[in-house]
Amino acid sequence: MSGTYNLKKAPYAPCGNVKSLSSGTKLYFHCFVFNAYGNLWVYARQAGTETHGWMSIVNFGEFSEDSLLRSCLV
Predict the structure, then answer these.
(1) Per residue in 31-65, pLDDT tens?
(2) Is 53 domain-assigned?
(3) Beta-bridge partners for 29
(4) The whole model's pTM is what?
(5) How many CB atoms lie within 10 A of CB 74?
(6) Does 69 fall in a domain?
C-alpha cells in the first residue's frame, strides 16, 4: 500500500472500519468486486492475522492483475 488506509466492512468508503493498515502491510487478495459506483474493491486478509475486509484498489501503489483472482460474485 502507498499510505495508511482503512480496511472496511463493505466495499464503500462510508462503511465502517475493520482496522487501519499502514504502508508496507502485506494483504492477501481473495476476490474483487465493482461497487455500484463502478469502483474496484478487493476483499483481503492481513498477512499473519485473521483480520479481513474490503479495500479500494486505488489505495495500492502497484499491484499485479494476476492478484485479482476472481470476482466475489459467484
Answers:
(1) 999 999 999 999 999 999 999 999 998 887 666 66
(2) yes
(3) 44
(4) 0.84
(5) 5
(6) no
The Cα 19–Cα 28 span in angstroms is 15
HEC sequence for the chain: CCCCEEEECCCCCCCCEEEEECCCCCEEEEEEEECCCCCEEEEEEECCCCCEEEEEHHHCCCCCHHHCCCECCC
CA distance 13 to 60: 15
Note whether residue 70 is domain-resident.
no
36: which 3 cell numbers?
455500484
Residue type, position 6, single letter: N
Does residue 67 lie within any of the structural domains? no
- The pLDDT-based confidence of 24 (bands split at 50, 70, 90) is confident
Name the grid cell of 34: 465493482
- Amino acid 58 reads V
Q: Which amino acid is at 53?
A: G
